[in-house]
């Protein structure tokens, strides 16, 4: 991602199973992230900031990970020391 040009956008194709693709699409729409999802086509997301990329990663992780993995991830977040 080109952080020196705030107008730069990156188009990303997200490979995810068909059922989860619509959930991810709807959540990205709620977050205001430009995306397209057509029948029998991959999800295409337009990332315009680092924040968009992190939100995409988070949304995909939520639908792609098992409950056990998500619990472990959350537990590790609670263990992080902030100074």
What is the element layout, followed by pairings?
Elements: E1 10-14, H1 18-30, E2 35-36, E3 43-47, H2 50-64, H3 67-78
Antiparallel strand pairs: 1-3, 2-3
Description:
This protein is an alpha+beta fold. The chain has one domain (10-78): Alpha-Beta Plaits (2-Layer Sandwich), CATH 3.30.70. 48% of the residues lie in helices and 14% in strands. The chain contains three helices and three strands. It has helices at residues 18-30, 50-64, 67-78; strands at 10-14, 35-36, 43-47. The chain has a three-stranded antiparallel β-sheet with strand order 1-3-2, covered by helices on one side. Helix 1 packs antiparallel against helix 2. The longest helix has 15 residues, at 50-64. It is flat, with a radius of gyration of 15 Å. It starts with 9 loop residues before the first strand and ends in a 5-residue tail after the last helix. The model has no long low-confidence stretch (mean pLDDT 86).
Structural class: alpha+beta
Strand order of the largest sheet: 1-3-2
Measured as a percent range, the helix fraction is 40-55%
CATH class: Alpha Beta
Gap from first CA to last CA? 29 Å
The rough form would be described as flat
Number of domains: 1
The biggest sheet amounts to:
3 strands, antiparallel
User: What is the count of β-strands?
Assistant: 3
Notable characteristics:
3-stranded antiparallel β-sheet; Alpha-Beta Plaits; 3 strands; alpha+beta; 14% strand; single chain
In short:
This protein has a three-stranded antiparallel sheet with strand order 1-3-2, with helices on one face.
């Amino acid at each position: 991602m080109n952080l020196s040009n705030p107008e730069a956008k990156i188009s990303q194709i997200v490979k995810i199973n068909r059922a989860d693709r619509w959930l991810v699409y709807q959540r990205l729409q709620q977050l205001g992230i430009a995306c397209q999802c057509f029948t029998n086509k991959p999800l295409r997301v337009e990332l315009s900031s680092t924040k968009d990329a992190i939100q995409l990663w988070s949304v995909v992780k939520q639908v792609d990970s098992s409950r056990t993995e998500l619990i472990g991830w959350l537990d590790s977040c609670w263990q992080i020391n902030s100074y």
